[in-house]
Amino acid sequence: MSTNEVAPTNHLSDHQVTLEVNEQAVVLNVPAHRTLLDGLRDELCLTGTKKCCADGECGACTVFLDGVLVNSCLVLCVETEGQSVTTIEGLSTNGLSDLQEEFLNSGAVQCGVCIPGQVVAAEGLLRTNPHASATEIRDAMAGNLCRCAGYERIVQAIQVAAGRRVEIT
Amino acid sequence: MVQYCRPRDLSDALERLEEANGRGRVLVGGTDLLVHVRRQPTEPVVLIDIKTASDLPPAVEITDELVRFGPTAVMSSLAVDPQLRAWFPALVDASAVVGSVAIRNRASLIGNICNASPACDTAPALLVHDARVTILSQDGTRSMPLTDFFLAPGRTACASGELVIALDVPIPANGFRSGFQRLTRRRGVDLATVSAAAGVTDRGVVTLGLGAVAPTPLLTAESAPIDCADADQVAAVVDELTAVANPISDVRAGREYRLAMTRVLAKRAVLAAAQIEEAS
Ligand code: FES
Ligand code: FES
Questions:
Q1: CB burial readout A75-100, b (16+ within 10 A) else e
Q2: Taking burial as the number of CB atoms within 10 A of a residue's CB, which of A51, A166, B123, B136 is the most buried?
C-alpha cells in the first residue's frame, strides 16, 4: 500500500471478499467497482496479470476463474466470493511451465506485456483441446492481442508445448 | 459511485431493483455492463448480481417442446452441446463468434439480448427460431416474442423494475434448419457490420433475421415455399425479404455497402440453412 493512503478507507462502501488465489485463501476488502484485475495486481501484488485495455479487448489480463478462462478486467472482486482464481504465477510455481519455455524458445516473447495472458489462454486451450490444430489455436487465441505481432511464433510455441505434453502422456 | 449487492433470491432481486429506483442494473456476465460502468464513472449505479440467486432457473433446461435458457447460460455453453447444435445451428454459430473465448465463457445469452444492440450477434438466430422472452416483476411473469422485446437501440420491453429470467426457444419442427452469416471488419473481437440468420422449413418457406440494418434486430416475413437449390428463386426471395432493411452509415460501413452485403449474407444464410454449397 502506498504511503499517501493514510486516510481510513470508507468501510461502508467496502466489501469483504473471501476467495482462493493460486490455491491460497485470501480476504480482500474492496470497493464494489474494484476489478479482479486490479485486486490481483494492487491488493495482492500479483503483477504477472497485465492491464492493457481494461475493456475486454486484448486478453492481457486472462486468468482462470473456477477453472474457466476469463478477462479479469471484466470481473469484479465482489463477484468472486468463494471462487478460485489461478493466475500466471499459479501456473509457474515450480519454475517455468512448458508453455513458458516454448514461448521463450520460439522467440515469441518480445516486449512481453501480452505474454502472461497468452500463456494462460494457451494453457486453457491445451487443457480442453490437447491436440489443437494450428487453426484451432488461432481461433482460441483470437482474444489475445500482441502489439509486437509475434503471432506466428506464439502459434509455434503452443504447438511445440502441445507436442511435449502428448509425448509425456 | 458503484454499489453492489447479491440478492438471496429473485424476489429479493426485485426488491433491490425497486429500491435502486431506476439506477439498478442486473449483473450476470458483465462483459458489456462493466465496460459501460467504467466509461461512466460518475453515473450512480447499483449492480444487482443475480448469478447466485437461489431460485434462478437453471442455465439450460430442455423440455419436450422447448429449450429454456436462464440468465446464467453463457455463449460457450451453447457450442459444446451437440443437441443444441442440431436444433439451432444458426444460434450456435452466432454464439461462437461473440468476442473471444474468455468473453464467451462469461457473456450471458440473455444479457446479450437485454443490451438490445442493433448488431447483437445472437438476435437474428433467436428471431428465426421464434424465441420468447419471460420477464419477472413484482406482479408476476409475462412473456412475449423476441420481436416485441426490442424497442430501440439499447431499449427493451423490460422495464426498470423488471428482470428477464428466461429465454424459450422452441424445438424446431422436423426438417426446419437454420443458418447464420456475419460480416466483420476483422476476425474476432469486432461488432458485426451486418449479420443474417435464415430459417428454412421442410417445404422451403424462408424467414430471415437481420442484424445491424435497422434500429433493432429485424425478423422478416415468411416467404412463399421455394426450391433452395434454385439460385434464381433464392435470389428473388432474398430481395423480397431484405427490402425491410434500412441501415445507417457509421464507422463500420456505409448504408449502400450494408444493403448490398445484407443480400449477400442473407443468400449465404439461406444456403447454409438448406445445406447447399454455394455455386462459385
Ligand atoms: S486488460 Fe483485460 S482484456 Fe485487455
Ligand atoms: S510481446 Fe509485446 S505485446 Fe506481445
A1: bbbbbbeebbbbbbbbbeeeeebbbb
A2: B123
